[in-house]
Amino acid sequence: MITHHPIVFKGLKKITGKTYVERVILKAIRNNIALYAIHTNLDHVKNGVNAVICDRLGLKNTKILNPKKGLLKKLVTFCPLDIAPALRNALFEAGAGSIGEYGDCSFNTKGTGTFKAGPNTDPYVGEKGVLHEEQETRIETIFPAQQERKIILALLENHPYEEVAYDIYPVENKLDTVGSGMIGWLEEGLDGTTFLKLVKERMDATVVRHTRLLPKTIRKVAVCGGSGSFLLQQAIAAGADAFVTADFKYHEFFDSEDKLVIADIGHFETEQFTSNLLIDIIQEKFPNFAIRLTEHNTNPINYFI
Questions:
Q1: pTM across the whole model
Q2: For site-directed labelling of 104, which of 20, 65, 89, 145 has its Cα 20 to 30 A away?
Q3: Is domain 40-67+179-271 given the CATH code 3.40.1390.30 in the classification?
Q4: Across the 305 residues of the chain, what is the mean pLDDT of every consecutive 10-residue run?
C-alpha cells in the first residue's frame, strides 16, 4: 500500500490494537501488506505535491519557493588535454553539470601537472622514477550529492591514469529542484474575491479561511501543501500576492501584515489530489502493475456551514 501520509507519526513502543494506528499496523502485518509512505520527500520535489496545486490553480513559470541547501557537491579533477572532452561527457552522462535549466556545465583551465611514477606502477604517460610534467585540463563541475558514487565511478572508468587525482567539495548553493513550497504566476491578475472563488473551486475546498483582502491585483501566488505557515516570510520576500496553504494558527494570520493574502483551505484539501500523482508515477514506471485507488475519505475534519 502506497500513501502520501504515513500512518505512524509518533514512535510506537507497543502494538496491542488499542489505537487506530496500532490496529492498522496489526492488520497490515497479519495480511502481509507492506506500507510505503512518501511524505516529506514528495512535498520537496519540483514535480510533487506543490506542483499539483500549481497545476490546478493554473500557475505558470513555477519554481521552488524555498530551495534546499547542502544537496550539491563540486568535483574537481585533472586529465591530459586530449582526454578532457570524453571525460567531461562521461561525467555529464552520469548526472553532473546541471545548473537550473542548463546542462553539461563545467569550467576548464589548462595547467601543468607533475608526478613521479613509483617502481610498481604502469604510468599512462612518463617513465618510472622520472619526474614528469604533463599539460592537463582542470575540470570543475557540480553534481547532486546523492549521485556521488555514480559520478566517481564514471570518473574512474573513463580516466586513463592509474591514480586519479580529484577533489570533492561541499557546496552551499541551493538546489532549485528540491525544497519547500512553490511560487508561480496566474495568466491574468484577479481581484481578491475572484481569486478566492478560483481557489475554492479548483481545490474543491469546503471553506477558505483568509486574511483581509487587499486593494491590489493577485497574480503572483505561493503555495505549500499541508502545514505551510513556516514559509510565510519566504512568500512575502518572494513578492507573492497570495499564499495558498493550510494549518495557519489564529495569531499567525497577523504575520501577513497586509503584505499578501493568506488563503488557508485545509490540510487535507491541499493534498487530496496527491493520490492521482502517485498513480501517474507508478504507471509510468511500472505500466504492467494493476493499481487500485482508494475511495475512502480519510479527512478527519468536517464542516458545519
A1: 0.85
A2: 65
A3: yes
A4: 88 90 94 92 93 97 94 97 97 95 96 96 94 97 96 98 97 91 97 98 97 97 97 98 98 97 97 92 90 87 90
